[in-house]
Amino acid sequence: xxxLYNYYQVKHIGIPGAIGLLRYALDQSYNLYLxxxxxxxxxxxxxxxxxxxxxxxxxxxxxxxxLLNHIIDNPVTQVISSDLxxxxxxxxxxxxxxxxxxxxxxxxxxxxxxREELLQINWDNFDKVKKAWRAFYGExxxxxxxxxxxxxxxxxFRNDDIAIVFTFVTKVYNGLSEKKAYSEQLxxxxxxxxxxxxxxxxxxxxxxxxxxxxxxxxxxxxxxDKERVSEIDYIILQLAVSEAIKFPTIDTSIILNEYLNLAxxxxxxxxxxxxxxxxxxxxxxxxxxxxxLGN
Length: 295
Prior knowledge:
With about 300 residues, the chain is mainly alpha-helical. It is about 75% helix and about 0% strand. It has two domains: about 25-185, no CATH class; about 210-290, Orthogonal Bundle (N-utilizing Substance Protein B Homolog, Chain A).
C-alpha cells in the first residue's frame, strides 16, 4: 500500500521502479524478522560481557550473577546459538548501529531490574523458558517506542513493520522445538514462487488499471462526496478491487478483512465504515457479473 501511495506521489517512478521498491521493502521486512528472532542471542553476548565485569566486583550481587548466567545459557539460547547457518544469515541481514547496541544493553538492564521475578523461572525447563522469552518480546520490543524510533532512524524499517513482523516472531516461539535447527523453524522469505510474485503482480495490476478501478469505485460513493475521499482510502479500495479481480479465487471475506485492517490502521473510523460498505456492495456486484469467484 505504501509503495502504491509513493507511486502516485513521486513523479517518474514508473512501474518497474515501484516493483523494485516493493521487493526491497519485502526483503527488509524479512531482514527485520531474522534480526528480531535472534534477540536472545544478542542478550547472551551482552550478558557475557556484563558477567565478566560483575565477577571482578568486590561484594558482587549474586542474584545478578545468577540471572546473567541464565541469560547466557538456557535452552532457547542454546537452540539459537548452535545454528551457525542462522547466525551467519542474521549477521548478513542486519548490521546493528550504536543505537541498537545501546538498546540491547538497556534491555539487559531491564531484565536485571526484574531479576527477582525472573529468578523464579525454572531456567532448565524448555517450555518455561520459551514462555519467558515470548513475554519478553511482548513487553520490551513490541511496546517499545524507543526501539521503533531506533529502527526508523536506520531508514530501512517503518514503525508498522514491527507489529506485522512481530506476529511471525511470536509464532516461532509458540512452536519452538529443541529437536530441530533454529533456521528450520523459521518461515522462509516466500512460501513459493507464486507467493514471491503475488505482491509485484498485484501492484502492477493496480497501477495499470488504476483509473479504471477508481472510476468504478466512485459509482458506489452515493452519499459520499468524491472529492472528500482521501488518497489513502482510494488506494485501499483500489488495491482491494485489484486483488479481488486479479486473483478471483481468493475468498472475498479474506480480502475484505485484510483491507479493513489497513483502513483501521491508516485511516479514520469513518473511513473504515465507508470502505466496508463500498467493498461489500462492489464485491456482490462483481460476483453477480462473474468477475470474481470467491465466497
